[in-house]
Each structure stands twice: as C-alpha cells, then as structure tokens.
Amino acid sequence: MTNLLEHFGFENPWWLLSICIAPPLFFLRNVRGAESGVNFSSLGILSSVGKTVRERSGSFTMALLALTIFSCCLAIARPQWRNLRVDRSASGIDIMIALDVSQSMKTEDYFETKSTGTFRQKKERIQAAKEVIRRFIERRQEDRIGLIAFGARPYSVCPLTLDHLWLSERLEELRVGDLDSNGTAIGSAVAASTTRLDSRQSKSKIILLVTDGASNSGSLTPVQAADAAASLKTRIYTVAIGAERRARNEDNTALIREEYDTETLKEIAA
Asked: What's the pTM?
C-alpha cells in the first residue's frame, strides 16, 4: 500500500476541493421545499394515484448527480501514475551482447524434454540462445548490459542499461527475419558492439558473442574486429550455438551447412 501511494498522485490536486461544494448544494435543494404543484378542489381525486415513478427515483437521481460531480472533479484533478527515478550503483562492468539472428538460427536441432514424460520437443537455435542469454542477464544484476542483433548487418536493439527487465523484453521480441538475415556478419557485429562500449567510461568492457555459423558477410573479418576491440581494452567471449555438423532446416527438406567456426571463435576470444 505504501508503494502504491508513492507512485500515485494528482496533477491539479486543488481541484479535489471542489468536491466539497456538492454537500451544500444537496442541502440547499432539500431545504428549498417541495416542488410547486396544481391545487385541486378535492384531494380525493389523487388518492388512488400514489407515488409516481419520478418520486420513487428521487434518491437514485441524487446519487447519480453526486457521482457525476465527484467524477468530474476527479478528472479535472488529473490522477497520474508517477515513474520514480531510482539511482543504483553498478560494478562498472559494461557488457554488449551480440546475438546472431541469421536464417540458420531457425534450425531445430535442440530438444526440450517435457516434465510430464519422456517426450522431447524440438527447439530452434534462437530459442536456445535466448535462454542462455536470459540466464546470463539474471546473474549480472549490477552490470550494465546492452544488446545488438545481427544477420548480414548489425542492429542496435537495446543500449547499455541497468533495467534488465526492459532488456529481457527486447530480447524476447527478437525474431529471425526482423532484419536482413541472409548472412552472418560477425566482424561487423563485433565492431558495432565495440563502438557502443568505447563511448563509456567503465573499468571493464565485455562483448558476449552468440552465434551458430561462420562469418560470411560484412567488410570486416572477425579477427580484424577482435584486434580493434582488444586495442580498446574490450574483451570478447563467445558462445557457439548448434553443432559442428550439418543440420536440417525447419521444413526438414534440406541440409544447412552452418557449422560454427570453432577456430575463429577461439581466436577472437583469446
């Protein structure tokens, strides 16, 4: 309840005082007396009429009027939900995650065992990669983390931030095919990540590269980009997704030659 009150407020709180006008108005209406009517020579004519629908609904009308006045005053006061700024200390480590979203990441060569039996459900590489990244984010609560997606070119998804919930939401929204996915530009992704980190003043800068294939796009080779990152004191860690073998595509109609380049990944992470 305390947290709710901290976030809730009014833009024009003084308008709430206008609600106090309603009780005097209702009081004056009641003491004004009965409404004027037509005099009859004999009240016996009206004895069988009884109370009219309008008389019976008088209390309801008053309640409706009171609710209307209250709602109008509340709307003019403009209730708002406030976003409070929270300052947090961080360890000073900045991490850019470069996630491969090329077409081969839709390959289903991972299996998920269901808790209700031995049934194994196929899982795409991109889903497996997201799970690895989510677990990584959960363990780095005090570090600033950003996200870059890449296929044939890199794309900034989330800048460096301590808001890991927002980062995880951006990660979950990523889909293969959201950008040019006909290629794997590892060198360009490393270079883009290095650029994001170079503008920050931190004691440690890290790139986490998550990919399933060999680099086949972009003007920079992975080794060239890694050398440039090393000159700026940025370390690179790699996560290989998939297997060192051919795998079938999502339609199970053809073999995809997308083995990850183990030697290159080891070299850029050295």
From this structure: 0.62
Q: How far apart are CA 262 and CA 87, in angstroms?
A: 41
Q: At what angle do helices 164-173 and 125-138 cross, to 10 degrees?
A: 180
In the structure encoding, which two tokens stand for residue 138, read together? 């959960």
3-state secondary structure at position 56: helix
- CA geometry: angle 229, 263, 109, nearest 5 deg: 105
What is the token pair recorded at 178?
């959201």
Structural domains in the chain? 2-31+48-81 (no CATH), 93-268 (3.40.50.410)
| pLDDT value, residue 176 | 87
Angle made by CA atoms 130, 133, 138, in degrees to the nearest 5: 125
Query: d(Cα 36, Cα 33) in Å, to the nearest integer?
Result: 9
Q: pLDDT per residue over 128-147, tens digit each?
A: 999 999 999 999 988 999 99
Supply the DSSP string of 77-143, one letter for each residue: H-EEE----------SEEEEEEEE-SGGGG---EEEE-SSSS-EEEE-HHHHHHHHHHHHHHT-TTS
- CA-wise closest residue to 156 among 209, 96, 199: 96
Q: Percent of the chain having pLDDT more than 70?
A: 66
